[in-house]
Write a structure and sequence with these properties.
Number of domains: 2
Helix content: 40-55%
Order of helices and strands: EEEHHH
Number of helices: 3
Largest sheet: 3 strands, antiparallel
Number of strands: 3
Strand content: 15-25%
Distance between the termini: 25 Å
Structural class: alpha+beta
Radius of gyration: 17 Å
Shape: elongated
Length: 102
């Protein structure tokens, strides 16, 4: 498995106190970016979509981890995961898909 090149997780979402319809994505105290929705009616993302975008972004490290585990386990004869680890990855993958509408 290759070493990750991105900021170590976990990442989290915080509602901006300075801007409406804006959510920050942070890792520890490191600001990674912001999901910003436009407020004009009928033009841009809704507040709900903006928050969902930030949450999907913040879950990226978990999504990558679970994807790696699922791919490792899919090669049964070469798997380094125990059955319990594979089941945990499977459960986590479904949770993430359900959370993000996949």
């Amino acid at each position: 498995m290759t070493k990750s090149k991105f900021t170590k997780g976990p990442w989290r979402v915080e509602k901006s106190t300075n801007f409406k319809n804006t959510y920050r994505v942070k890792a520890r105290d490191v600001f990674l970016g912001a999901a910003v929705g436009r407020l004009e009616s009928g033009n841009g993302t809704t507040a709900e979509e903006t928050k969902a975008n930030a949450e999907l972004w913040a879950d990226a490290p978990r999504l990558l981890k679970v994807l790696r585990q699922v791919l490792e386990y899919s090669h049964i004869d070469q798997s380094w995961l125990t059955l319990d680890e594979a089941e945990a990855a499977h459960t986590e993958a479904y949770k993430l898909l359900e959370k993000h509408g996949g």
